[in-house]
């Protein structure tokens, strides 16, 4: 990418250009350990379409942990998916599964596994190593960000519902078609 457009456009571009059977996502801040990747692959090869890392023992500030917990609680209440920590960027996807979500819309990178779950894909998680940040600065330390996150999650849920569900009342069953033909 020629300029920084944000995480969702970066994920979308990366997913669309990827050619392998599996696609792995990971932030460049080195808080996640690349040595966890073989565990992700092993877990995916069993019975899943996506595996999300779970930073069970986070090495972040209390504020960042609060914002992340609030995000994950709100996301769970909206989507009811089985993942504890969808904001962990260390994930692995079957290529065909994650490419089925393209193109991604604004801020959807935090809901990838939730959207896959809604589409019927099998989503799982494994505990991964999380280290203190030593490079760069987080953009997620403002506790008021929870309110923006809430609206983003609602947006994703409603966008998903209206673009992936059959519209009620706009379809005819066979008996209705017979009645129309008879008249």
Descriptive report:
The protein is of the alpha+beta class. It has a single domain, classed as Spore Coat Polysaccharide Biosynthesis Protein SpsA, Chain A. It contains 7 helices and 4 strands, in the order αβαβαβααβαα. The chain has helices at 7-17, 37-47, 62-79, 95-99, 112-118, 145-164, 174-182, and strands spanning 22-25, 50-54, 91-94, 123-127. The chain has a 4-stranded mixed sheet with strand order 1-3-2-4. Helix 3 (62-79) runs parallel beside helix 6 (145-164). The longest helix has 20 residues, at 145-164. It is globular, with a radius of gyration of 19 Å. It starts with 6 loop residues before the first helix and ends with a helix.
**Shape category:** globular
Q: How many structural domains does the protein architecture include? A: 1
- The biggest beta sheet, please? 4 strands, mixed
Helix percent reads 40-55%
Spatial strand arrangement across the major sheet:
1-3-2-4
**Unreliable residue stretches:** 166-173
CATH fold-level name? Spore Coat Polysaccharide Biosynthesis Protein SpsA, Chain A
- The CATH superfamily is known as Spore Coat Polysaccharide Biosynthesis Protein SpsA, Chain A
Number of strands: 4
So what's the CATH class?
A: Alpha Beta
SSE-based structural type = alpha+beta
Strand/helix succession: HEHEHEHHEHH
Helix segment tally: 7
Average pLDDT taken over every residue? 82
**Which strand-content bin applies to the residues?**
5-15%
| Distance between the ends | 59 Å
Output the radius of gyration: 19 Å
């Amino acid at each position: 990418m020629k300029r920084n457009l944000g995480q969702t456009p970066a994920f979308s571009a990366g997913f669309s250009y990827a050619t392998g059977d599996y696609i792995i996502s990971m932030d460049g801040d080195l808080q996640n350990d690349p040595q966890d990747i073989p565990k992700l692959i092993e877990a995916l090869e069993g019975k899943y379409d996506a595996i999300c890392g779970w930073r069970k023992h986070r090495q972040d500030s209390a504020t960042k942990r609060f914002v992340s917990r609030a995000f994950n609680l709100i996301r769970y209440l909206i989507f009811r998916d089985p993942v504890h920590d969808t904001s962990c960027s260390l994930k692995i996807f079957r290529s065909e599964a994650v490419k089925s979500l393209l193109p991604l819309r604004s801020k959807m990178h935090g809901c990838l596994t939730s959207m896959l779950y809604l589409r019927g894909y099998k989503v799982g998680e494994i505990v991964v190593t999380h280290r203190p940040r030593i490079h760069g600065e987080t953009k997620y330390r403002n506790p008021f960000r929870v309110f923006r996150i809430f609206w983003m999650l609602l947006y994703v849920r409603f966008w998903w519902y209206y673009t992936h569900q059959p519209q009620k009342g706009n379809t005819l069953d066979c008996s209705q078609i017979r009645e129309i033909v008879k008249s």
